Amino acid sequence: NAGVTQTPKFQVLKTGQSMTLQCAQDMNHEYMSWYRQDPGMGLRLIHYSVGAGITDQGEVPNGYNVSRSTTEDFPLRLLSAAPSQTSVYFCASSYGERGPQYFGPGTRLTVL
Amino acid sequence: SQQGEEDPQALSIQEGENATMNCSYKTSINNLQWYRQNSGRGLVHLILIRSNEREKHSGRLRVTLDTSKKSSSLLITASRAADTASYFCATKGNTPLVFGKGTRLSVIA
After folding, report:
1. What is residue B1's predicted lDDT score, i.e. its pLDDT?
2. B6, B102 in Cβ contact below 8 A?
3. What percent of chain B has a predicted confidence (pLDDT) above 70?
4. A58 neighbourhood in chain B, CB within 8 Å
């Protein structure tokens, strides 16, 4: 099993550009989530999904969109990038909302 | 809002010593989880303790949970240089999993 994969590993955007961060898992996990990690802030939840077709907002959802058309994939879209979105983004999955989460390697995003 | 708060923020010890990290939280929980993050990497799940459990062991790791004090501790025994990492507690209650800001552990050889 590849586990949780994320692409790209690094990305530089200009303010106002849009992009999609990809996340896929091959463990048949129902629960998937996106976090951002900033220095001194720990991990903050952006969006999460309890199954295909179901998504919900986390603590910091503004400026991001998600969709979950399949169990395997959970892409995160930045609609109009801002410097405040410079961060490291992690995708995670688990069997259920209460279980241990498996994390991807992260995407380091810089917005100029 | 972040529920789990780790203490200390940073810890530096010699190889072979024990390392203890603490986590405090504010509201009732279903379970509490500990994760490790090596620099530049994704988080790795270490151990999950349910609200009706008081202690759990996994190898050199020992986790305790005191729901009356709303606190947990992670003990790493006989630490190694490879244990150098950030350690996060995460609480699961009625909301999605909430992470603390972490403890940075440095183990000096």
Report:
1. 47
2. yes
3. 97
4. 96
The C-alpha atoms of residue A107 and residue B90 are separated, in whole angstroms, by 21
CA dist A19 and A29 (Å) reads: 25
pLDDT, one tens digit per residue, over A89-101 is 999 999 999 999 9
- Whether the per-residue pLDDT at B2 is higher than 60: the answer is no
Assess B18–A contact: CB distance below 8 Å, yes or no.
no
Q: Write the DSSP symbol of residue A83.
A: G
> Measured between CA atoms, how close is A105 to chain B, in angstroms?
5
The Cα-based distances of B23 to A69, A90, B2, B19 in angstroms read 37, 22, 12, 14
Give how far A106 is from chain B: nearest CA, Å.
6
